[in-house]
Amino acid sequence: MKNLIKLSVAMAMLLCSGLTKAQEKTITGTVIDASGIPLPGTNILVKNTSNGVQTDFDGNYSIEANSGDTLVFSYVGFETQEVVVSGSSIINVTLKDNVEGLDQVVLIGYGSSSKKQITSSIASIRANDIVDINTPSIQSLMTSKVTGVQITQLSGRVESGIKVRIRGISTVGASQEPLYVLDGVPLINDDESINNSPINPLIGLNPNDIDSIDFLKDASAAAIYGARGTNGVIIITTKKGKTGKAKVTLNTASGWNFATNKREFLDAEQYVEFYTEAALNSGLSLSEIETQFDQLSLGRDWRTNEVDTDWQDLALVDGITQDIDLSASGGSEKIKYFVSTSYNKTEGIILGNELDRYTLRGKVDADITEKSTVGVNINLSKVTIDRLSNDNAFVSPLQSIAQSPLTPALLEDGTANVDGNSTLFQNFLGQEQTGRFVTDIWRTTANIYGDFYINDYLQLKSEIGYDANNQNAERFSGSLTEFASAGGVGTVSNAITERYILTNYLSYKRTFGESVDFSATLGGSFEETNRKSQFTIGQGFPSDDLQTLDNAVLITNGGSNKTKYNFLSYFARSRFSIAEKYLFNLSIRRDGSSRFGEDSQFGWFPAASAAWVVSNERFLSNSNFLNKLKLRGSWGITGNAEIGDFASKDLYGVTTYDERLGVSPIQLGDNELRWEKTTQYDLGVDFGLFNNFISGEFDYYNKTTNDLLFNQPLPGTSGFTSVVRNIGEIVNKGFEVNLNARIISKPSLTWNVGALFTKNENEVTDLPSGDIIDGVNIIRKGEAISSFYLYEYAGVDPANGDALFYTNATNPDGSLDKTLTNSVSKANKIVTGAPFPDYQIGFTNTLKVKGFDFQFTFQGEFGASIFDQAGKFSSGNGKFLDNQTLDQLDRWQNPGDITNVPQARLNQDNGQADSTRYLEEADFIRLRNITLGYTINPTYSKKFYMEKVRFYFSGLNLFTITDYEGYDPESTADFNGNSGVRTGTSFYSAPPAKTYTLGINIEF
Q1: What is the pLDDT of residue 405?
Q2: Fewer Cβ atoms within 10 A, N terminus or C terminus of the chain?
């Protein structure tokens, strides 16, 4: 009997299986666009399964499905369509164009919104916009892609810091960088370098992991981040898994790096001629200068050009870049995953400068019930950098260009020449041969989150975020360095910063009737940042091969410290729309920070915005000319809290007197120190013409920052040099234009162009403490922040070769006296030029023809100036023995000569003062990147089990059009000035790298 039951059950199961198979059938068809052209590569997925295929080159597909299944058809740039399988085995689909991208999801901080519901100034970059661009850093993906955002790489070092400015400079003493938020975690953005040369804070991120970048530019968008939104907010989101079969992607590339520019300097013969003349002009005898030549040449015969060292060629070298990235993603309706790993090796264009980066990322989202989802996202990275001294150090390779070409770089045995009489200063090759400067950075970012649907309208999201930045630097200078007399010096430094973020917020969404959509968010967050650091210095090493501190004879210095600060925040936002025509947004945030005075730790940051979608009105519903028109307006207040942890406190430190320990005041505090606040309003228009053949955005903004945080100078009698206070006001105002044109939009041929234009005016409108002068820069009421403050150079006296300056004394009528003088002590400095551009442009062209894709981006900036601080030495008409730029051959030599280069006079001042002689306009237009790719027909690649195979060539910084005579119009000094603000000064600053890359992308 039991056997009979088993047999019956087996037969029933077999019958059911047969019935199921009988219902399954092969569905075929073609996918086309509205004009009837096939769409190859369209994704077709059986809903709620991992069963999916893609259309072939002719738009045809074939898939196994059951009656009642739903097929989901999706293609980038077109509306997703769902079709239920019924009796027919042939399903042809026509996808509708969705070029407006109105349903594109935009992250707005603590939530998201469709683009059509946005009332603020938010710009976005999607993975589809950057997938074909090979770049070394996240910031490079942003360059010239968004209006109002200036991105500048300080120099050509592989780890070089990058300045990002959103809608101008809004602060003096606090951080000017935007707030970066990675997958909901506000990132640590502190500079922990031990040589005053900053490291790119996003250096540990893999660009291929990026899914989207959203820029919150106006106050209505950024105010939800309150105290840290003044400089704008950049929200970076990484890729995640999607329902469907597993997809494996492999990207690998090799590149070649070269300096974008080299300058011309005197060769040995020109050097001898030039400095012989300079010495004689200064009253030295011929034998005296020849003795100096003998010393510089280290016994070589300089008269027969036995030595002609090109120090620039020794410093600037060619390098290679290797990239490999592997990722896998997929999932079911319940669990989705994305994992990736990457390796990058970059040999820089400066000798001894290299980088190795390893990354590992994992993201999992799981539906644990029908109404709850949890997820975890972890990114691990390790970056190892072979570093150099900063631009201001004598052992910096680029300073070597000032060495004499008569000086041999190496001795006969191949060791660096460090003879003190031969070299003008320390030979950088000594550090290269017997030194080591390595920085290791371990970075971990992670967050665990949960979404819980309390009912159909109310959702709770809880998130725990973590960011840890561990930076360890080891530096050793041995027997051929400036520390040889100490037996070598070693330094070890370690800084660990950890940030914990706990965020909880409720989201409410509901539709009332048929026309009113309402949503609200209410939440709070707590953030704690802990930092601890230590350093140790030792000297006296028995060998250059023994470089760790346990080999030092003597530990000469050391120390450690710990610090932390907290943020406590509450925020609320409400958004509603009426008939998709009238949109409103209100938000408020209250932030508290331990960094400020006890009575001023909390601040309110409100914002409001509204929009009218005019194109949804009946009178425009049938317009063939104007098919999209949205008018936007916003207002809000944001803050800046990026100052020292104890700026408001009176601080005391340990001191000694008469060999006794004591405590003395080291900082004067201000218990009323409060938030820097920026009030901004924005007026914008979004439009589309001729069925969105042309679309774009226009924004006008005005930002007023008051209660500026900066060090106010104090009289010396106070016992302190300065105190951090809230004083002054800055205004930034300007407009932005973003235009896009779909020249051709066919599946086999697409051609899109985009153009950006940004204008920004910056002015200090209030400064009660009066002018603040920092080197060649000045902060003055009525002028742009950190404008240049210099003597005005007037050329050369043709009678005697003296450098001339304008006196610029103020006349009774307020004009400036342009009387000439050859004594700079009789001249007055004037404000002339600013380090920040007035205008920025960008132009992007994207062309796809069947399997080929071609893209390039031009970038331009106009109105900025750069002061060449090194010009006093390398273009100083022979005051010092430093080698000179080739233009110094045009010096004055005889009465009547008309030139801009004064007479060469060794050891004498003749035009080397900080003047407009060394100030240059930094206008430029640059081909930022170019890419040419070819994708093999999927019909062929699938025969080898590959969904996509693409080969490409890309170029970065291929050429620059500029009148700037320095290395590069973007490269500025990488070390801090007294105020901590980098202000457009160049000092032997390396040019960026020009990179050629060949690569391949494969999808399985």
Answers
A1: 97
A2: N
